[in-house]
DNA sequence: GAGAGATTGTTTACCAGGGCAACAACTTTT
DNA sequence: AAAAGTTGTTGCCCTGGTAAACAATCTCTC
């Protein structure tokens, strides 16, 4: 135990004062998200090599037939140029392919491969287990409440 | 309206399918946090030049006398080396100073300057307004519930 | 005390993720 | 046919984080 640790041990939480931030939703949102990300990294990412962002894209691609890169960018709320690298990663992993579109030679339709589909099923299981594990401190009802409150924040 | 947009318009949300992700807490946590960050950037950051991370550090420094950089790193859950740049920024802005510690010549005590304190009061107001504005879709009771649920996630 | 071992702040290199601007190829509109 | 818009892509930049190395300093152990 160092001197600095002892000095802050007499407060709540990690021992440091947070001031008025305890009333701020954004603060707790950020901390929760960081914790969720680390939990995800220690389970799904280490096992399947998939980050939360990649997983989200895989789900959107799997559930939206005829999705183009621009539409994916809009759905993910990021720039078109950011999509290129991610799609390249998923293609390299063999999860998806770029299908040429006869009607529009500029764009591609993103489509899951067979191995991508089975990989997604496997990853889904891991993610669901991870998510339940991460929210183990909450009852099912509390978890449902939390999700519905969060949804209303970003819509 | 492009063809791709029309193609996905027949689903819920932004029109893209999310698969089983609607049941995943981490997914909604991430989306909410991204939305909160963007809201913060468009208000506080543009007005005061302070990011959510910098604001959090300022609060911890203001509320923890005798805080060293290592203790701050531990409190923020980041590497010591990441702290250096951030502290430099806050020093350059004149918000804080590094106080030499006679008892330990290796470390510094981070302390708010007078102008830093008044700046923090101003920023606090802006952050609180921003936070209320961001969570305007929720009632006060719902907001309180949400915060207490989030707290239980990362502890 | 002397020396081995931690700790602190710092620098350097590195990587992930995203924004912005430019661009060629292509489509749509005028 | 020509102008204007869209799509995917590349290059460069910024932010923010990790990891390793290092000098200075403190602490523990013998």
Write the layout of secondary structure elements.
The structure is a homodimer of 155-residue chains.
Chain A: H1 3-8, H2 25-48, H3 52-63, H4 69-76, H5 80-92, E1 96-100, E2 108-112, H6 114-134, H7 140-153
Antiparallel strand pairs in A: 1-2
Helix pairs in contact in A: 2-6, 4-5
Chain A binds a DNA duplex (30 and 30 nucleotides) through residues 2, 51, 53, 68-70, 78-86, 104-108.
What string, H for helix and E for strand, traces the elements of chain A in order? HHHHHEEHH
Mean pLDDT of chain A: 87
Q: Based on helices, strands and strand pairing, what is the structural class of chain A?
A: mainly alpha
CATH class of the domain at 27-133 in chain A: Mainly Alpha
Strand order of the largest sheet of chain A: 1-2
Integer-rounded radius of gyration of chain A? 20 Å
Just name the CATH architecture of the domain at 27-133 in chain A.
Orthogonal Bundle
Word description of this protein:
Two copies of one chain form a homodimer. With 155 residues, chain A is mostly helical. Chain A has a domain at 27-133: Arc Repressor Mutant, subunit A. Helix content of chain A is 63%, strand content 6%. Chain A contains seven helices and two strands. Chain A has helices at 3-8, 25-48, 52-63, 69-76, 80-92, 114-134, 140-153; strands at 96-100, 108-112. Chain A has a two-stranded antiparallel ribbon. In chain A, strand 1 (96-100) and strand 2 form a beta hairpin. In chain A, helix 2 crosses helix 6 (114-134). The first copy, chain A, is globular and about 60 Å long. Chain A starts with a helix and ends with a helix. The first copy, chain A, binds a DNA duplex (30 and 30 nucleotides) through residues 2, 51, 53, 68-70, 78-86, 104-108.
